[in-house]
Amino acid sequence: MGRPAFFVRSDFGKEGRGHDTFEDVSYDRLNQIRITDVKVDKDRVVVWGDAAAAYEQELGVKKFMRRFEFNPRTGFNVSDEVQMEKPAIMTLLLHTDGVFTRETENRFNTSARGVKLLVEITEKTIED
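Structure (tokenized):
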């Protein structure tokens, strides 16, 4: 696989109508999205969720687990584990109400209404 690509766009078809990524997805499918585990320690909180049901069957998403971790010293960390039925290139769309600024090839930041977000794109490929 090649290096991750990052594109900054503001011309998406649904832009301006709210955060409606799942507008055309049935509630039956959306109701299958689940928080699967929560771990609370004195210095962090970790939440795991299964979001595979949000994607059309023909896309071949076998597994989509998202992990949210909050640590007061380091902030939030979000990571995804995605397994496909066959090799595929995955695209992540990250929305901001501000503007992304490139710091390095794979590191970006944004700030909106006093809230800052640092994004670091990493790619791990696990072969079966």
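Residues 93-128 form one domain. The beta strands are 34-40, 45-50, 61-71, 75-84, 101-104, 107-112, 115-120.
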